[in-house]
Structures are given as structure tokens and as C-alpha cells.
Amino acid sequence: MAIQTKYIFVTGGVTSSLGKGIIAASLAKLLQAQGYRTTIQKLDPYINVDPGTLNPYEHGECYVTDDGAETDLDLGHYERFLNVTTSQANNVTTGRIYQSVIDKERRGEFLGKTVQVIPHITDEIKHRIQILGNSGDYDIVITEIGGTVGDIESLPYIEAVRQLKWDLGEENALVIHLTLIPFLSAAGELKTKPTQHSVKTLMESGVQADILVCRTEHELHDGLKSKLARFCNVKKEAVIESIDVATIYDVPNLMLSEGLDKVVLNDLGLASKTPDLTKWNQFIERHKNPKNEVTIGLIGKYVELQDSYKSILESFIHAGAENEVKVNVEPIHSEYLTQSNVEFKLSHLDGVLVAPGFGERGIEGKIEAVQFVREQNIPFFGICLGMQMAVIEYARNVLQLEDANSTEMDSDCQNPVIDLMESQKSVTDKGGTMRLGAWDCQIEQNSLAYDIYGETQISERHRHRYELNDTYTKQLEAHGLRASGFNPETDLAEIIELPEHNWFIGVQYHPEYKSTVAQPHPLFVAFVAAALKYKTNK
Ligand code: GLN
Fold first, then answer.
1. How far apart are CA 461 and CA 65, in angstroms?
2. pLDDT tens-place string over residues 119-145
3. How many CA atoms lie within 13 A of 306 on its CB side?
4. Is 511 in the pocket of ligand 1 (CB under 6 A)?
5. Atom 5 in ligand 1: which residue has the minimum CA distance?
């Protein structure tokens, strides 16, 4: 029997970066493992319509869904934990909310009324929160509110939560407040005051937190939990400790041992049972007990930031566990990679991944890297821009087209082996206009790609504007570079490989967006296996 959809809101206090996304994903995992159809949504208070136009330095990786939404990287965690796809409805920004309200106003839909934050903006937020619940696909919707309580830009969201708690009724909605309990080493004590203040700030907006999840570096003793409960108006069992752990994949078990799922289900009037985490725990077991290790170079221009290549790093964790191999990812900055240092920087590696990216900075270093690993027979994996760089390198050094380039980097180049599709040439807007989301790819048999996927029809997610220029495909193939996967409607090349090489593959799409704990991506699994084989035979 279908149950009334229940809503859980996750807010954050004291400081940003407490990991609301991981807590939301971990709770969702526990609820899913008890048979509840659960999804997670992220509301972002910034004014960009989506994070697609944001520099990775600002906001980390931009995650892409099947339906082509450019979204917050937390959606990646949701998919990786739950193995359920997300969509545009799972990520909403203030920019998008205002855009739709203003569009309605222009169409005259407000019938002459003054359009205001309350009720028009808050109604739009409430509507967006309930889209997933009203779809009938979910029993529980977890909505994570970006930012920190008290931020001016979060206010309309908190107000929408206040209203929804009333509209939906006690048993159908609850608020989890994620907070920090700092340890003052001079005093040798954990401090609850910042949490008391942030719960109070939330109350000033009329929202009472039902559950506190407390990030901490040290165990919260019983007395401290009682104190938090007393000052913050929550039941003692609703004070949940979230102590630092070795990997984000430990958090569901941590929340289970703290009883977060039980408190949540009890508050929502739902039955709880022991979640079935058998597969999840098998993954953790393999992840924590590797039999071997490999070192893979990740060549990009944002390597100093963990979040910029989030999905790639997580994909390596999944693929490593699958192979029972520890994958050490060595970040290598492409901007500082030159012909004279490439051997020194890359020769010890068991595999090299050239990362996606935009713009000219660091691309010559990426091309040097491809040439080195191609000539040295080191396993190579190129993703999106990484695949494009592999084509340019081959055109320059094997086809002897010295000025081969992408028109993204040199619009006048004589040999544009990577070029814009005709349909992209008239595009002037930057946001939401790339080749985005899921596209089919037909894989040719007797290819490395076919060996890896074991099937001919696949679908993968894209986020790019430039393509392998078809006028060069024959010439490239005549010299040994093979295009082994094509989009059936457009004939665009999606996969390239070098049959003569140990293991060399480039893909125009982003396999990292589809790797999950339950289904590690076959390309990453095969790449790690190839790296191990290379290392063993060295
Ligand atoms: N900049 C390239 C393009 O737009 C590659 C994009 C990417 O790596 N995601 O085609």
C-alpha cells in the first residue's frame, strides 16, 4: 500500500562544509535498505540558475544527470549511495526559483497582484519541494537546504520549511539540524554553545529542529547529550553523534549505530526494521582490505581541490574495491607539465587519467602527458577534454599535422581535429547550452570498449560543446587510432582507442557520473585492472 509521502528537511548550522549531503545520503541509504523508496533533493540559495556556469574553484565539480541538468555535486553522492538516478527536480537554486516566478509574472499569471517573497517565492519553493513527493515514486523525500542557518539568502527556504511543516502536519515532516560541536583544546572541552545558538536562530524563523546531528572530533558523553537536548528542545535520543570517520562510506553504518534511522521513522510514524546493508558492507570490506595497490596520475588543472574531480575520485574508490586494489590517485597539475619534466613526473605511474576541463590553461601539459604514456605503453584513460587532447596529440605527432588543435583553443587553426558541431555554432548563451545528459552510444564489436562493456548499446552522460571532427576520422583511423563508439543519430564519435597500445581509451562522455557503490563503472574497473596488470608486468 502506498504511504503518504513524508518529508525530511536537513539544515546546517555553525559552519559550512559539515557534510549535510553525506548525512542526507547516509540516512536515505538506511531508509532505502528498510524498503522505503527514498530520494534526496538539494536546494541551493545562490542566484545562479544552475552550477553549470560556476568555476570549479567556487563550487567544486558540476554533476550532470541523465536528463541533462547541471547540478550540485551532492547529487553525485545521492546517486552513488542510493544507486537511483536523480534529475533536474533534485536540484533547485534561488536563481531558478526567481526565474520561474518572474516568467509567470510576465505571462500575467499573478492577475495583477504584487509579487513578493512571501507568498510567491515561498510558494514556488514549496511547489519545487513537493514535485518529487507528488510524482508517486517516493515514500520519503529528503530535502537538503544549502548554506548555513542565519544566512540572509537562506531565509525564504527556512520560511518555506516552516510553512510546509504546518501544511503537511506533525507526522509527515521533520527537520534535522546538522551542527558542529567544537573541541577547545585549551579548555580540554567540547562546546555546545554554538549549537544552542544555531538552534535558536532556526527558532527565530519559527522552525524547531526535531533531530540534531552533531559533527564532532571526540565522543559526546552522556551528560553533553542531555545538555544539548535540554537547551535545544529535542528528545535525548534525537541527539545524534556524528564523529569523524575514515571514509564517507562509513557514515551510513555510523548513523545506524547512533539510531538516526529509528528516531526518524518513529517521528514520522513509520515502522523500522534492521536495514539490509549486506552489499554495502561487502563493498566496505573490499575497500578496506585491498590485496594490492596501484598509483594513477590524475592530470588536470584543478588538482589542488578535492571537490573539482569528486566523481572521478569516487569512481576510483568503487573500481578499487571491485578489484580489491587500493588506488592511490596522484594529482598532477597539467600547467606545470612540460616536455622536459614529463618523464620524471609520469614514469613511475601505473596509469594516467587526463581529466575533463574547459579553456586553454594547462592543455599543452595534457598533450605532453598523452604523448608520453602513448609512447611508453602506460595505460591511458581520457575523459571528455582528456579524449580530445588524445586526438590532438595523435594528429600532431603521428599524422604530422603540427598545428592540429581544438577550435576551443585556437579558433583559426588549420587542422581543427576537434571542432564545434554545426548546431553549436550559433549558440551564444553559456548556461545549459552544451551537449548535456544521456546520449546513446553504439559500440563496435572486436574493440577494447566492447570487451569492457560487454554490450553494444550503452548510454552515457555528456557535458561538452566540442566534438571529434568527422572529416579527420578516416585519416586518424588509417594511422591506427580507432573510433569504436558512435552516437547512432548524429554519428558523432564517442569513444576512441589505440588497438596497438596496452590499454588506451578516450571517451567524449563522463563515465564518472554513473559509477555507484552498487554498480562501479566498467571503464574505471577495467582501467584499474589494466593498471594493476601493467604494474605486475613492469
Ligand atoms: N571543453 C571541452 C568541450 O566543451 C571538453 C569539456 C569537458 O571536458 N567536459 O567540448
1. 7
2. 999 999 999 999 999 999 999 999 999
3. 2
4. no
5. 385
